[in-house]
Amino acid sequence: MREPRHPAPHPARLLTGRNVLVIGAGTRPSDDPQAPVGNGRAVAVLAAREGASCVACADVSSAAAAATAALVGDEGARGLTVVGDATDPGRSSAMIAEVVGELGALDALVVNVGIGLGTGLADTSPEQWERVLSLNLGAPFLAAKFALPALADGGSIVFVGSVAGLRAATGSPAYDSSKAGLFGLTRHVAKEGGPRGIRANLVVPGLIDTPMGREASARRSSRSDSYGRLPLGRQGTAWEVADAVTFLLSDRASYITGQSLVVDGGLNAV
Predict the structure, then answer these.
(1) Beta strands across the sheet bearing 54-59
(2) How many CB atoms are located within 10 Å of the residue 3 CB?
(3) Where do the structural domains in the chain lie, given as residue ranges?
(4) CA–CA distance, 202 with 187 (Å, rounded to integer)
(5) pTM for this model (two decimals)
(6) What is the structure's pLDDT at 221?
(7) What is 149-205 written as a DSSP string?
(8) What is the pLDDT of residues 180-232, one digit of tens each?
């Protein structure tokens, strides 16, 4: 496998000694030999590069999870493969228990999941609505529900959302609504985790060049048309999303909780 590269060659070791679980750590397969890395895989690899002792890589695809775990190992950290459907309460609970049982402690959780289905209210079926909400909002809820009691005091949770939660950014009402719901979930988790020093924050990516992002651009010409209007004049990368996640997981963000960090090149500022 071609090793994904981060543009910064000198990590700051922000996560030294931490045990990190990334749910949604795989990158979907692509026939493109130049396919970019996905957000979840970039987060897992960068966490290892920043000194994490172990990064548990969870995904519904065993192959995708194992591929990310191998890349984590290449960075000198332990990569643990965890497989399961994050929308299933029993399996979500079991994944947390598996990681804690294997590592003895869990210091950080990242939840990076999402799917978009349906176009407009008229052409979005109730089944599509339920499926999107189950993954995009239900899975983060389950992960937080089961992980919060298991996290070490002073730990950190980061959800990965979308600028679709800030405005009607896509044609999918289910996607936009589910991503908006993450803002409320993040605040609630921050409230419940606060007494134990556990922080919860939300990273809000904009137009990011990932396999999923390229598929969205192929379906919607309006997405591609937006690139030139971005103040920074380009799409972001999964590594730039991972940098934001890593910062929020680290002690450098020790007094930040219940907040959203928008990583969109200025898309929502102009």
Answers:
(1) 78-83, 54-59, 19-23, 106-111, 151-160, 199-205, 260-263
(2) 10
(3) 19-263
(4) 9
(5) 0.91
(6) 57
(7) TTEEEEEEEEEE--GGGTS--SS-HHHHHHHHHHHHHHHHHHHHHGGGT-EEEEEEE
(8) 999 999 999 999 999 999 999 999 999 999 877 777 666 665 555 566 678 99
Q: So what CATH class is 19-263?
A: alpha beta
Distance CA 89, CA 87 (A): 6
Q: With a cut of 50, list the residues of the chain below it in pLDDT.
A: 1-3
The total number of residues shown for the chain amounts to 270
Give 251-264 pLDDT, tens digit per residue. 999 999 999 999 99
Distances (CA, A) of 100 to 17, 106, 212: 15, 6, 30
Three-state secondary structure call for residue 93: helix
**Residue 197 backbone class (left: φ over 0; alpha: ψ -120 to 50; beta: rest):** left
The type of residue at 70 is A
- Cite the active site residues: 175
3-state secondary structure of 75: coil
As a 3-state breakdown, the chain gives helix, strand, coil percent values, each rounded to 5, of: 45, 20, 35
